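Help needed: design a sequence for this.
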């Protein structure tokens, strides 16, 4: 645990601060994170629903316990400053436990470079959490090649990023990888699609190999940075960033930020 992170373990319906040395070896089953800046957050309800559903799929069937844990974690987030809290379901000594990490938000950006991952290490691709360490290795390998993010392929087709969902523009049509591909249901990507629907912007799905994205405007989106434009793809297609479109959509994202629930 780094100095900017505080860990809480859910026990007896309370959030109890624990020193890292007291925490046994654990298996991460579910994780959900989002940016909180000045007490504002985007799509908190969608994150809560995704966490609860993922926890259910991983064997935590007490819905009321999950709701109390979520509410307690949200209440523990400071209403000032920039934070990137993480809600977790872990297995410790064959028992399921809920944990909350209060983490300061890292520096944010609006653009990044990507590189194609050599392989797909995901074991549970549709749940955020179990593969975080393996995906971190993908990012580290991408960084060694001068990129910040790794693009995961599924049978040669663009499927996902290691820490982002990928979307691209063909003219005025927003395009996503096939929604049937196994991957985490990105709250940020779902929000982008929702904004597009509200604006009556066409949204399409496409199986695309990296070479077929030559000339497109490619976005990498997640709950930390929001929408970022991909400026380059190492040893990949030439891209066409659109700064005006990026600024407009980031402003739309900002307009959807809502205050955290008031403290009890």
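Sure. Designed sequence:
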């Amino acid at each position: 645990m780094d100095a900017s992170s505080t860990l809480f373990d859910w026990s007896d319906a309370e959030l109890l601060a624990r020193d890292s040395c007291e925490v046994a070896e654990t298996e991460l089953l579910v994780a959900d994170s989002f940016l909180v800046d000045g007490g504002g957050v985007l799509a908190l309800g969608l994150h809560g629903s995704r966490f609860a559903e993922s926890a259910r799929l991983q064997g935590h069937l007490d819905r009321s316990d999950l709701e109390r844990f979520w509410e307690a974690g949200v209440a523990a987030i400071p209403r000032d400053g920039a934070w990137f809290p993480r809600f977790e379901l872990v297995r410790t000594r064959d028992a399921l436990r809920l944990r909350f990490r209060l983490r300061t938000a890292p520096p944010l950006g609006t653009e990044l470079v990507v590189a194609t991952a050599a392989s797909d290490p995901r074991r549970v691709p549709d749940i955020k959490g179990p593969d975080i360490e393996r995906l971190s290795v993908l990012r580290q390998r991408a960084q060694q090649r001068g990129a910040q993010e790794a693009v995961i392929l599924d049978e040669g087709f663009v499927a996902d990023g290691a820490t982002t969902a990928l979307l691209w523009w063909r003219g005025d049509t927003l395009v996503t990888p096939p929604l049937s591909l196994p991957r985490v249901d990105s709250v940020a990507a779902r929000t982008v699609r929702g904004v597009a629907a509200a604006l009556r912007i066409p949204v399409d799905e496409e199986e695309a190999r990296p070479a077929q994205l030559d000339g497109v405007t490619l976005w990498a989106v997640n709950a930390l940075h929001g929408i970022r434009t991909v400026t380059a793809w190492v040893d990949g297609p030439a891209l066409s960033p659109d700064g005006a479109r990026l600024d407009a959509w980031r402003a739309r994202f900002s307009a959807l930020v809502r205050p955290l629930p008031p403290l009890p």
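The chain has two domains: 5-103, 111-255.
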